[in-house]
Design a protein that fits this description.
Radius of gyration: 18 Å
Distance between the termini: 31 Å
Order of helices and strands: HHEHHEHEHEH
Oligomer: single chain
Number of strands: 4
Strand content: 5-15%
Strand order of the largest sheet: 1-2-4-3
Structural class: alpha+beta
Number of helices: 7
Bound molecules: flavin mononucleotide
Length: about 200
């Protein structure tokens, strides 16, 4: 792989939030999931678990249930009913109308166990980081397939609701949702902070 095409490919990825209605073939979806599992992970324990929401019915079930939690959270911020309804509906329809979605979950059962909080917290974070890396790989693989994707954080705010709505295995902890589909609109590149703001060179 020569570097320039690779960097062009990295730079051309966007978070895609509007999709064509075209379905994603199962073959492509599995290739993208397989690529996600090529990600590095702490102790190679691969704590990622994926729930593929290939049907609109499954996405609707998730969106409806998460929408109730989202609504309560927004109302508790003191927002107006109209404002809250509008925002909840936008989030709901985005999930339902995406051609596919992949819920990223964390399974801690094969991670190490410590009896002190400091190391246990570090171990937990390593597992979360590993799942996030798999999510990054998944987004990049989707881009390589000509698909677009966006990471939606909502499940992290409604873990128990998501587990119940999708009948997840008890050990699976929802982390994020990736919506996938062929892009209807590719937005302009979002700005990045200059390196001199984010790099400490010693
Ligand atoms: C952990 C995480 C959570 C995100 N949550 C959301 C979200 O809930 N809704 C959304 O529209 N985009 C979400 N995004 C996408 C970011 O907004 C997006 O990556 C960022 O604005 C940069 O744009 P780009 O991906 O097109 O370069 C999330 C991204 C990450 C990594």
């Amino acid at each position: 792989l020569s570097t320039q095409p690779f960097f062009n490919y990295l730079h051309s990825r966007r978070s895609i939030r509007r999709f064509l209605p075209d379905p994603i073939s199962e073959e492509v979806l599995w290739r993208v999931l397989e690529a996600a599992t090529r990600s590095p992970s702490a102790h190679n324990r691969q704590p990622w678990r994926f729930t593929v929401l290939a049907t609109q019915e499954s996405r609707r079930r998730l969106a409806d249930e998460m929408g109730l939690d989202f609504r309560n959270d927004l109302l508790s911020d003191g927002r107006s009913f109209d404002d809250v309804d509008r925002q909840v509906e936008k989030s709901r329809s985005r999930i339902i109308e995406a051609p596919a979605a992949v819920l990223l979950n964390l399974d801690l059962s094969e991670m190490d166990l410590y009896n002190d909080e400091k190391r246990q917290t570090a171990e937990y974070l390593m597992a979360v980081q590993s799942v996030a890396m798999a999510g990054g790989y998944l987004l990049l693989a989707a881009h390589a397939e000509g698909l677009g994707g966006v990471w939606i954080c909502a499940p992290l705010f409604a873990k128990e609701t998501v587990k119940r709505a999708l009948l997840l295995p008890e050990e699976w902890e929802p982390q994020g949702l990736i919506l996938l589909g062929f892009p209807a609109k590719v937005p302009a590149s979002r700005p990045r902070r200059p390196l001199n703001e984010v790099v400490q060179l010693l």
